[in-house]
Amino acid sequence: MNRKMKKQNFEIGLIIPLVLALALVLLSFTVSCADNPVAQKLSLPEGLKIATEENRVIKIANFYRGMAEQDIWIAVSRYFPSINASAGYTTLARQPGMRFGLMQANTSDRDYPSYGVNFHQTIFDFFARENMYRASRESLKLTEKDIFRTKNLVALEFINAYFSVLEADKMLSVGEKEVEALTSHARMAKDLYEAGTITKNDLLQAEVRLSDAKQRLLALKNMRRYQASVINRIISRPLNLEIILSEPSVDTALTPQLEMIWANALQNRPEIIIADSEIRINELKENAKKAEFLPSFFAEGGYNYTRNQYSVYEDNWSLVLGVKMNIFSGGMTRAELSKLKIRSEQLREQRKKIEDEVKLEAERYYLDRKSAVENIAVTKEAVKQATENLRINNVRYEEGVGTATDVLDAISLLTLAEKNHFRAMYDLKRAHAGLLYAAGEDLTLSFK
């Protein structure tokens, strides 16, 4: 019996540490997964779809659509009658009455209930309600265009961030290639130094250049991580989520002349359409305000009941057809109308300013694209020349003809040429996206 109990205690003593160890392993694995989430693959069309649907800026802009729709219902409500109901109970200190010479007679009870239902309907107000309704409809169109503008802005931001991450990936590959070339050179320099072919100074120079390249590579990795966080912010994902991007196929063919781009921008840019809508809304409000100088025709009626034993009829129906007109309000209506006219002039001037800004923006992207195309041609040739230059200097150095400085300079030149080439490539793609945005194109459709 004692042996059996000892055996059970021994087994329990083994199981408990194993369970604790397993729990620690699972906990460390969970923490590791939280710190290093699984990388997410993302293409440009997928990212654009997520960005234009889940971005917080767009969600905020969508609330304005709901408010604009309610403004339409507010405008429509003016066409319907206003109906009010009331009820009460009156208690008087003295009972109402009237005097006929020396005689007195009560005219009402001292305490009595009353209730009534009344309506008011505007029949004609010289199209004031019509103008306010049209203004609310125009406001909804304005809101839709503003949402489109916001989506396009978010799309452009996402596209620029997307290409910036891809550019950072290319820069990382160039940096790794530079470190690899400098490592190979440092190894060769060490062998030559041990063989007594070169001096200690050449070896130290190679090692310093290698250390500097590793530091710059680390900076590139940090920059790539930051650019990935920018994308995660745009698509409302955790900032530390690792993403793997695929290279999109972007048609950067020759674009039309600048004058044609300007014409398309002035016709399609939502900012200009919004400015036109604001002008129309203000003009409709002007027309509605002018109607206040004219009479409005209305109908009123209702049913009222007051308990009164001294009255022939305790309840009664009523109907009134009338007209009312604001004769004098201290100049308030005229001042409000003048304010709206000044606002119209301001909006027209603001529209001209927007036209200039849109044309200037389109010209900037047009010139950026033109420069990028020229830079790609130049840097592509520079990469070929720098590659050949490095090959020649490596051969010369191995044969003892060239110097270490020549090899290091050749590596630096090749790295610089490759970085300039990739930078020009992605500058072209960013400028192309910017030019489409400046022309008023829908970027989510342009980058399907």
Q: What this model shows, in words?
A:
The protein has 448 residues and is an alpha+beta fold. It has one domain: Outer membrane efflux proteins (OEP) (Up-down Bundle), CATH 1.20.1600. It has 10 helices and 8 strands. Strand 7 and strand 8 form a beta hairpin. The longest helix has 67 residues. It is elongated. The two termini are 78 Å apart. About 2% of the residues have low confidence.
List descriptors.
single chain, 448 residues, alpha+beta, Outer membrane efflux proteins (OEP), two-stranded parallel ribbon, 10 helices
Within CATH, the superfamily carries the name Outer membrane efflux proteins (OEP)
State Rg: 40 Å
Average pLDDT score: 88
CATH class descriptor name: Mainly Alpha
What fold name stands as the CATH topology?
Answer: Outer membrane efflux proteins (OEP)
Strands, helices and their partners?
Layout: H1 2-35, E1 40-42, H2 44-54, H3 56-77, E2 82-91, E3 97-100, E4 103-106, E5 111-124, H4 128-194, H5 200-234, E6 243-245, H6 258-268, H7 270-290, E7 296-306, E8 315-324, H8 332-398, H9 404-438, H10 443-446
Parallel strand pairs: 1-6
Antiparallel strand pairs: 2-5, 3-4, 5-7, 7-8
Helix pairs in contact: 2-4, 3-4, 4-5, 4-7, 4-9, 6-8, 7-8, 8-9
Question: Nutshell version of this structure?
Answer:
The chain has ten helices and eight strands.
